[in-house]
What does this fold into?
Amino acid sequence: MTTTPAPRIAIIGAGPGGLTCARILQEHGIAATVHDADASRAARDQGGTLDMHPGSGQHALRTAGLLDDFLAEARPEGQQMRLVGRDGRILFDAAPPAADATEGNPEIDRGQLRGLLLDSLEPGTVRWGHKLTRVAPLKDGTHRLHFADDAIAADADLVIGADGAWSQVRRLLSDATPVYTGVTFVEAGLSDADRRHPRLAELTGDGTMMALDNNQGFVAQRNSGGHIRIYIGMRTDENWHRQAGLDLSDTAAVRDALLDEFTGWSPDLLGFITGTDTGYTNRPLYALPVPHTWPHTPGLTLLGDAAHLMSPFSGMGANLAMLDGADLAQALIDHPTVDQAITAYEKVLLPRSAEAAAGAAEGINGAFAPDSAAQTLAHMTQHH
It folds into this structure.
């Protein structure tokens, strides 16, 4: 980039995509500031485990000079995929291609990945406790960022919306809002699983276990530190708990309601409901319309979920966000002006994300369907 003076680049959101972008820019001598609503890096749980794909997540990490750090923490054994029937029988079991972290799509906890990226940035790059409330266009084509809690407003030549599903930045570019997919996950968890829950740990295996049938299912994922994260899935109304008169903070009532929903499932699988050490968290799944596009707008662009929120049944969310971040950074490095960089980046981003989002929509509709057990078994057999 030859723009003089150096452009003021503001990245909204310290997720994998925004941090990847900031890291690559810094590696090339281009400053960027990341604003995040969280009070600190440890303010909240970062979620489950991610598989990093060679052509997207791993490519972004290589571009950022962080692939070796990733491989040192990755869990190649976490690639194991297992399909279980509602009767508890294992129908399909695919071990990872190798115990070599450089092969396939090795897993890493979201928190570990975020920590790796944060530690790679220059001190002070991330401004914690900066909750964006408004982005105001200025007459000279720049934008002023307003934050909650009377934080000082900041002006930027480029505002990158890496601020997730309910992005504030997106509102300036698009009228699109996330729509409920029809599927809700209720998250649970097993701590010190091999010792405290050996039967469920054995059923889960080293990677991901899925049991899907007739618009319902269980997804259990190995995380590091002996933890198993569980997603109890249902095709149901977005407000299913209100319709049932259920208080989500009443753990016993939620457990009983879930057991009622999953009547007839194997006692082993029902153990994922009753064995939780973490209680239950209701997580309705949302997605942006497909395709999601916006008119080119000087000084603004999006990446990750802000650009293409999709169901987790693509396995592409974080991978795409990081690829977005790497591609945007590279465009800013390669092009003489910010506007030329955004134009080039969006030309690649928009068709790629539309294709991935369409696949994710197809994936969740197949996983939560009347014949989902047969569909999923056929898909797994075909792809392994």
Remarks:
- The mean pLDDT is 92.
- The longest helix spans residues 338-367.
- The first strand starts at residue 9 and ends at 12.
- The CA atoms of residues 17 and 322 lie 4 Å apart.
